[in-house]
Design goal:
The chain is an alpha+beta fold. Helices cover 26% and strands 38% of the residues. The strands form two sheets. A four-stranded mixed sheet has the order 4-1-7-8, with no helix packed on it. The radius of gyration is 37 Å and the shape is rod-shaped.
Length: 190
């Protein structure tokens, strides 16, 4: 069945070639002498022969392609092997200094899936962002966040939280404290 189209092309090429060379008078002759004569002019015959040659070349190319195509090329693609890199997903994480005047520095320890990132902000650098890269397909992933506030009096205060976020290329999440008692969360930002 694979060779049906090239075979049909060869048949069409042969018919067009014969029509271009032979005339109605030639085909009706009892002894099948081939003579180039009749009412069809040489230009029309040349066009038919040229079209026949195109069909012939296309058919031969089709046979060649079918004979040399990779095995299994008609089957659905197989899953990527280990040598092919998976799709890279970049997830942006953002944090900002809280409005609390007693906080001099904030350190956020963020884990998404198996990736880990630390973001630190202070009064000189009140907002910071960084990215995590994943070699997976977009998916829901578990996360955990721990926020540590360093205060002016030298004490520290810690908040933590966890949840699930959707990890896909180009998304941005920001670290917040939400709820009562406060919990650290990642919220998607636009």
């Amino acid at each position: 069945m694979e060779y049906a189209a090239p075979t049909a092309g060869l048949i069409i090429a042969a018919v067009l070639f014969l029509i271009g060379i032979l005339t109605v008078n030639d085909l009706a002759a009892r002894d099948f002498k081939i003579t180039i004569s009749g009412k069809v002019g040489p230009f029309q015959r040349g066009v038919l022969v040229a079209i026949a040659v195109l069909f012939f070349v296309a058919s031969v190319a089709g046979f060649y392609w079918l004979a040399n195509k990779p095995s299994g090329s008609g089957n659905p693609p197989s899953p990527p092997n280990q040598s092919e890199p998976a799709q890279k997903i970049t997830l942006k994480l953002v944090t900002e200094m809280p409005d609390d005047e007693n906080v001099v520095q904030q350190t956020d320890e963020i884990t998404v899936g198996t990736a880990h990132l630390t973001l630190t902000v202070n009064r000189d650098n009140p907002a910071v962002s960084n990215v995590l890269q994943f070699d997976d397909m977009p998916q829901d992933s578990e996360y955990s966040v721990e926020i540590t506030y360093a205060k002016q009096d030298g004490s520290t205060e810690k908040f933590s939280g966890n949840g699930t976020i959707y990890v896909a290329d180009g998304l941005t999440y920001q670290v917040f404290l939400r709820g009562d008692p406060p919990q650290a969360v990642l919220e998607r930002s636009v």
